[in-house]
Design goal:
49% of the residues lie in helices and 7% in strands. The protein has 502 residues and is of the alpha/beta class.
Length: 502
């Protein structure tokens, strides 16, 4: 029997029934990812399994380093098959790490491969996968169609030209691809050389000479407008914590002149300047009806030597432990008092913040938009079964799980779409177990309807993306045509009311 069976992670008949009938056939709206717009615009064809699976994947690099694999096999210039072989030798040592689940789920869903990956199977898997990569449904856009991705949002710096998004909008691609506005570099005022280089790019992109704070804000608003014209409806901020220091316009102006003149801001000056900008960004988002995403609490670039050698996003980050609650509350309150609090999704990197964040979002629900403030899906190091369940439980206990906008890949890899299946199985197992214990009613319409909404429809309704597809039409088409995955038998339903709907 293969490892990834139709009952994978589904520990009860009710869970299996709910997954098969209400979750598996839902399309995907991947509203936060790091896929390359260039790869999508050019419909990249992947030359081998390394290119599609290992290139840029810091999750795998961390595991390989922990297994004693030299850096040259991770980020170095070793030829692709040798890097893949080093990964294959590492995989058996990832037992109980979510990587072990993801690896074999991905091999099965993309290539139909059910063998366990290790050194002995590596050559055969490499050859079989590479042959399969020649097929059209495993090109960059083919993958989106195969997994029924109706829309996705990439992560884009304000200086990005958005040329590839323009090409995509004119390409006839069946998946709508939108940019998301990620202005993190606007806050990096401790490094004036890098900051001013970025400002020069921003100046060119906005066609505004930037000498003063007013010029800077005008250029950011110009790019915000341009993103909106390209269908963007989400911003995103990767922050240690929310910046909430009081900062007047005069103080912000003085800080900007200082860093524009080539001098680094002190920690206090940088925090105040960041606070000023974060309020500014909140007003921009609210005025256009965007959704703001706050990714809080990651401790980034802990290893300075490796940062200098290999740059950011190379696998040297971890969970941070800053006081979050008061700062988050103060930030949301500042925007709310100004009538400028947009829809907001808050992701926490530290599981210790689950209940604090889950209760904080309840302070700013406005009675007009259902689920206006969201506790985002389990993120980064929490993107696994145990932490997904913790996030779902915290949200259930303190808020409305039924309004949750669900899963994102948050990935640079085109091989990550089975993470939605993984999440849906975890969700259905959790709910199915509650039903079997008598903690939720045996009501198919009530329980199944909630699962469908969490898997797709809540996000489609919440995000206000300029979608060509209607959610109901898309999900009906997916249900009719399958989910691009091997057929699964329907389990005999446990509860009588579920039989009526089957």
């Amino acid at each position: 029997m293969g490892f990834i069976t139709e009952h994978f992670l589904l520990q009860s008949e009710t869970a299996r029934y709910l997954y098969k009938k209400y979750a598996a056939a839902q399309p995907i709206l991947d509203y936060h990812c790091h896929l390359s717009p260039k790869d999508l615009a050019e419909n990249r064809r992947f030359g081998n399994l390394f290119e599609i699976w290992l290139e840029g994947d810091h999750y795998k690099w961390r595991a390989m380093r922990a297994n004693g694999v030299p850096e040259r096999f991770c980020t170095g210039d070793v030829e692709p098959y040798q890097k893949f072989l080093a990964w294959a030798e590492t995989v058996p040592h990832t037992l109980r790490n979510p990587l072990y689940h993801w690896v074999h789920l991905e091999l099965k869903r993309y290539f139909g491969i059910e063998r366990l990956l290790d050194r002995d199977s590596a050559a055969a898997i490499w050859q079989a996968a590479n042959a399969r990569l020649m097929d059209d449904d495993l090109s960059a856009r083919g993958i989106l169609e195969r997994f029924h991705v109706t829309a996705l949002c990439t992560t884009d710096d304000p200086t990005d030209s958005l040329e590839y998004h323009q090409q995509l909008s004119e390409s006839g691609c069946g998946t709508r691809v939108f940019p998301a506005f990620r202005p993190d570099r606007a806050l990096r005022t401790r490094d004036p050389i890098s900051f001013n280089r970025w400002l020069d790019k921003l100046s060119a992109g906005a066609n505004i000479e930037i000498a003063r704070l007013a010029d800077f804000l005008a250029a950011l608003e110009n790019r915000h407008d341009c993103f909106h014209q390209h269908g963007c409806r989400l911003s995103d901020h990767g922050l240690d914590y929310c910046h909430t220091e009081s900062c007047s316009e005069a103080e912000a102006s003085a800080a900007f002149v200082k860093v524009r003149s080539g001098y680094a801001l002190s920690s206090e000056e940088a925090d105040r300047f960041s606070s000023y900008l974060m309020i500014f960004f909140g007003h921009l988002d609210a005025a256009k009806g965007w959704t703001k995403q706050l990714h809080l609490g990651a401790y980034r670039n802990a290893n300075g030597r490796m940062l200098n050698g290999y740059g950011r996003d190379a696998g040297f980050d971890s969970i941070g432990d800053w006081p979050q609650v008061a700062l988050l509350g103060k930030y949301l309150d500042s925007l709310d008092r100004a009538g400028a609090l947009p829809r907001t999704i808050i992701y926490n990197a530290n599981p210790g913040d689950n209940y604090a964040f889950a209760t904080m979002i309840g302070n700013f629900q406005d009675g007009n938009i259902a689920g206006k403030i969201q506790l985002g899906s389990a993120w980064w190091f929490l993107d696994q079964k145990d932490a997904m369940e913790q996030q779902l439980n915290a949200l259930s206990n303190c808020g409305l799980l039924s309004r949750f906008v669900g899963m994102v890949t948050d990935s640079r890899s085109f091989m990550s779409y089975p993470r939605h299946e993984y999440f849906r199985r975890v969700l259905c197992n959790l709910i199915g177990s509650d039903v079997e214990r008598g903690e939720l009613p045996d009501d198919e319409e009530l329980v199944g309807g909630m699962i469908k909404r969490i898997c797709y429809h809540n996000a489609a309704d919440y995000l206000c993306l300029p979608m060509a597809h209607k959610a109901a039409e898309v999900s009906a088409a997916v249900a009719a045509n399958g989910h691009g995955l091997p057929a699964r038998g329907v389990e005999a339903p446990r509860i009588e009311q579920m039989e009526k709907g089957s």
